[in-house]
Amino acid sequence: MPAPVLIVPGLGSSGPLHWQSLWQVRHPEFIRVEQADWDRPDFADWLARLAAAIAACPAPPILVAHSLSCALAAHWVARHDRALKGALLVAPADVDSDAHTPPETRGFRPMPLVTFSCPAVVVASSDDPYIDLPRARGFAAAWGARLVEAGPHGHLNAASGLGDWPAGLALLKELALLEELRG
C-alpha cells in the first residue's frame, strides 16, 4: 500500500497556484491538513489538527510541509512516537527570528531541533525572506534531513513561479522509495 501523503500548508494556506495545491489537483489522493484559521495560527489547534490527520491515516504518512508548517511538523515529531514514512520540509520559516517571520508565528517558538525518525528532506532557497540559508542548513542538520539548496527562488511558493514543481515531486517520490528500501 502506498503511503498516505499529507499536504501541510503554512501561514495563509496555499492558494490555487501554489505547488501544494497543484499537486492535490494532480493527485486527489493527497490529503490536505485543514486549519481553522490560516491567517491567525493557534499553535495548540494547529498541532491537534495535524495529530488528528496523522492518526486518521491507515499507514504512516509522508508529510509535505511548507513554511510555518515545517515548525509544526518538528513540534509533532518532538511530542509523538508514532512513525512517519517521510517528511518533505520546504522553505522552513525561522520562527525564532523576529527579522524573518511575522508576529503570528511566535506561538511556534522555539523551533524544535529534534531528529526525525524517518527519511527527511529540507528544501531551501538562497533568497527566502523567511529564513537565511545557514539557518536552513542548521535545521536540516538537527532534523537529520538531507538539504536540497534550490537556488534563488524566494519562499518556494506560488510567487516563485515553480508551477507544479516537478523537482519537488521527484523528491517526494524519492522519499517514498527510500523508506520502502529501508523497511
Automatic annotation (TrEMBL):
Signal peptide: none
An example Gene Ontology molecular-function term: hydrolase activity
Key words of the record: Hydrolase
InterPro entries in the cross-refs: AB_hydrolase_fold, RBBP9/YdeN
Taxonomy, superkingdom: Bacteria
Pfam families membership: Ser_hydrolase (PF06821)
Name of this chain's protein: RBBP9/YdeN family alpha/beta hydrolase
Organism: Ferrovibrio xuzhouensis
